[in-house]
User: Fold this.
Amino acid sequence: MPRASIIIPTFNRPHLLPRAVQSARAAGKDVEIIVVDDASVDETSAVCGKFAGIKYIRLERNQGVAGARNAGIFASRSDYIAFLDDDDLRLPGSIDLQSDALDVNTDVGFVCGAMLMANQDYSLSGERSAPPAGKGDRFWELLQLDFPVMPLCVLIRKECFARVGLLNSRLRGIDDWDILVRIAELYPAMVLEDAVGIYRCPSPCSGQGSSSQASQLYQVLAHQRQLFRLPRVTSATSSQRKSVRRKTVNRVADTLLWNAAGLLRAKAFDSAAANIFTALRLNPLRALRPRALMKLEQILVTARRESLIKQ
Amino acid sequence: MPLTSIIIATHCRPHLLGRAVESARAAGDDIEVIVVDDASMDQTESVARALPDIKYVRLERNQRVAGARNIGLLVSSGEYVTFLDDDDLRLPLTLNEQVRFLRANPDAGLVYGQAIVRDRSSERVYPLDCPQGDVFWQLLTENFIPCGSAVFRRSCVDRIGMLDSYLAGIDDWDLWVRIAELHQVIALPKPVMVWQRSSPVSAQGTSQGAYIVSRAVRQFKSSWIKLPRAVAAPRHRKQFAWNRFSENMASHLVWEAMRSLNHYNVGQATRNVSTLAQVGPLAVLRLAKKTGRSLIHRTQGRRNNDLNSGRCV
Assistant:
């Protein structure tokens, strides 16, 4: 039985897939790599046929990312599960590192590590995103989006799924957040300081998710109401619930505004408008407060200056 | 490794569980019985832990029946899989027979059998005619596969994905549709299980008949008719499928409404009737036409009989 499984859901991106599979292979000594082809209509299956030593699963009907990940979990034989998107990369030895942590800390539900940001051409941008290292209860932080984590830097104990259920296939793009919240409700989480993965940041023009960021964050807020039905939330005081909700809404509004500035800079005006409108809808007073506007202006001014210098 | 996995999802019914598990264990050789406890708050856990030779999985948070069945799939290891509800019974040695059918037909994905439907007052066998082969279009119009009677290959799930946990009540129908779209289906025309039908008073599942129908209508329009095979089919074929489906749903609703009225449950009857709007007025008209015709037919037959008997006198 392999020690850990890396599940790579893929859809119509055969040009990126080999790189991801290669990085997954180097990520651990005894790793089972499962590529779940979510009913791609191009040469993905031919590309996958060339890989040696992977498990290739082809879904005949498109199930969405969460459905494909579930199919991967269903096919896996190991005790630890990692998810990797077809355009992201795992760092060498990272799965071994995280598996060791799960071996030692038997009560922990999942282990995450730091994540390096990269541009569209996989060149590192120098940014690094990591939650504070350590072991403990991260439920509330995860619930109020205070815990910067992506599925690619998490290794999950498989038995967690048997206690909290599988990924929610109706959530588009936020199924990973949902499952981590549900696991963290029952299990402590652990964060390592080491970097474990490289995240390929979507560019505003790539049409790869970020264009729908506004709707995605809006979905997060809607789904948070569902998560508020979890026993740990219902047993909390109402003031705690209110403060979680307020913090999340504010965070989402801020994120949307700052990203709107970036989008304006990239001349993606419709996405920027969507972001600003959503922010206004969420919390008009916060979106219009002087500090927010000043920061927005500052971002735009620096952008303008940069472009002038370039010219 | 066991050959067949029987997955029993249970929620707060410890008094029935033992019986279901026992029937599952007697259903065949080389099987594994998996009990998924969907976060029951009562003594289900202690009852299940006392049962010998089962794999017991406890969900801490309620995932509804489809989510629990998915977890059962996840922990199962058999090559063939079947579900059993905690209030239903499997008949002895029936699994062996069904698995033999699947082994003999490598291109078939699923084999089902008949169920003995037990009401409070009556017993009948369902379905009476068991279609087999390519049943995709028939399955779109009506779910004739009793959930506990179906045995399918594990490899089917690898091709079509798992159950949709949002479709409480029709998750099995949805899975059969997706299997039948790609695979052949075999029928074993003999009873393999006992299916306890709920009455509207027992508040057990079917009491939400209206809700299930509206889910099914939505699923039909948003998903089933958009499956590649349906999309590729000519328009009249799809229209025909919708006509039959909506008619079935309408008659189901009317029937449920009558049943609720019989039990003086007016609220539920109203809910059923108001769901008819979703099915569409045309379906109701078609249903009325058909019922009217059969009524006329029957009365005419009776009149003829009267005439005949009159003549005899």
